[in-house]
Specification:
about 270 residues, four-stranded antiparallel sheet, 7 helices, about 20% strand, elongated
Length: about 270
């Protein structure tokens, strides 16, 4: 699943391809992808020009003047900027026909992705966006904020980092990496995290996701870009996916456990 770094990389790549292009037509081949009524979604977007493309956490925000549509890729959603004559396969669910003769196609094997049309001025009032916490790098993401979120949380810190209402944009990969960099066990109770550890989590969340974005994100089995972007952050991973390999700090083998159903990699020696 793409996390904040991969979503930012996708947004950057798509900006170069679609900004300034107009939507001539929209085809919805699987209605459950779109939250709005199909006819409304199509009618409101036809003839509109892509004026901007932002991201917020794991969400893409396609801007078309006074209207925008939100897009969450979930597990396996991908966008393709592709020739209109290219065959449409069974996993393509929404097609935006552009005025340059190309298509922007949304493909999703699992069909879990979602799109929603909203007024641009009300994007951050949308319930799906409004409930989210702060992104890594946001000045509002402070140790006090994080401690307040964690103080009554009896669950493991790994689960808390996956909660998008606390820190917005971290997924399984970067949560594992952040906890290793912070020297915190993923099974530590969230309410036991100290002020210093909160600062470490915040700092590592920013530095790790920033570095990943700079090198194109992580191109691994669970996420591969469809836009010609080959990520290299998998070359920088310390623990994720490295069960049995030596810890880069102490040499003891990395272990893998399940934390609330998520594969969790860590060093039992370094992460107390």
């Amino acid at each position: 699943m793409p996390e904040i770094a991969e979503i930012r990389v996708v947004a950057k790549a798509l900006r170069k391809q679609i900004i300034g292009k107009k939507i001539e037509n929209v085809k919805i081949l699987y209605s459950r992808i779109v939250v709005n009524e199909d006819a409304e979604f199509i009618e409101m977007l036809k003839g509109r020009e892509f004026t901007g493309l932002d991201s917020y956490g794991k969400w893409l925000i396609f801007q078309l003047g006074d209207w925008s549509f939100l897009s969450h890729l979930r597990m396996e959603g991908k966008y393709y900027y592709i020739e209109r004559e290219a065959p449409v396969d069974k996993h393509t669910h929404v097609i935006f026909e552009l005025d340059d003769g190309m298509d922007l196609r949304y493909r999703d094997v699992r069909k879990f992705g979602r799109m929603e049309l909203v007024e641009t001025s009300k994007v951050f009032d949308n319930p799906s966006i409004k409930k989210l916490g702060y992104e890594p790098g946001d000045k509002r993401l402070t140790a006090d904020y994080l401690l307040q979120k964690l103080e009554k949380n009896r669950g493991p810190i790994k689960t808390a980092l996956l909660d998008q209402t606390i820190i917005n944009g971290l997924g399984n990969i970067y949560s594992n990496e952040v906890l290793f960099a912070s020297r915190i066990s993923p099974i530590r109770p969230s309410h036991a995290i100290t002020a210093k550890e909160s600062e470490d989590i915040i700092e590592c969340s920013y530095s790790i996701t920033k570095k990943s974005e700079e090198v194109g994100g992580s191109t691994i089995r669970s996420y591969t870009s469809s836009l010609g972007v080959i990520g290299h952050y998998q070359d920088y991973l310390k623990v994720h996916g490295k069960k049995g390999e030596p810890c880069p700090e102490c040499g003891q083998p990395i272990v893998k456990i399940q934390v609330d159903g998520r594969g969790t990699y860590y060093c039992e020696h370094c992460q107390k």
